[in-house]
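Tutorial handout. Part one gives the primary structure; part two gives the three-dimensional structure as tokens.
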Amino acid sequence: MDLNLRGKRALITGASKGIGAAVAESLAEEGCNLRLAARNKDQLEKVAERLRAAYGVEVDVHPSDLRKPEDIEALASVASDVDILVNNAGDIPGGSLEKISEETWRHGWELKVFGYINLTRRVYQKMKTRGHGVVVNIIGAAGEKFDFNYIAGTAGNAALMAFTRALGSRSLDDNIRVVGINPGPVQTDRIITLMKTQAKNVLGDESKYNELLARFPMGRAAKPREIGDMAAFLASDRSGYTTGVVLTIDGGISAKQG
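Part two.
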């Protein structure tokens, strides 16, 4: 299916690896020109080089720390030409209320929760001026299936779900669509880190994280491209009547009772 994205430009945060890099590849395969943002310049350059060679698209890299207001301003300034914004950067740690300090909680939210909100605030206005745009927020299924041992992430994701639905409820008035994706477990380095924390909390031994992974549907986590391809579809005109919604991709985990 041709998503009619060729020649459009997308900004993707957290694009140096994992879901962000997979979204970048899905969009590049459809002919999108890209602006990739993350803190690690070397990793960004590797992704950019691979995508240029594989798909012949323009790829610019923007090393940025979205916890810093000045980096958000700089990124929004160079992104005045984007048709698609994919918010993906985040590293909220696992842990219960007793184990997550206020400082750690705020540090995590500065990147994922306020990073999404503040970058969207600026890019949305530029899209409004240009008369079109799509915002895709990669959030997380813990926002709907609450997790005692990932409390900062659960609360942050729930906030971003509400943000996506509230903004998207009227964004079509500005010819802008705002949608979200809630991935469940995905095959990334981050899932290993989180599952080790879960294994320590639940099983008393972080080395047993594979036992938790084996409990997932089909005995595996989602592939990053399964998230990336959905992001590309939602960003396309093929999904032109979709806004103010959050799609969950977790193998049915969130739908289970109990």
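Part three, for discussion. The domain at 9-184+222-248 is CATH 3.40.50.720 (Rossmann fold). The first helix runs from residue 18 to 29.
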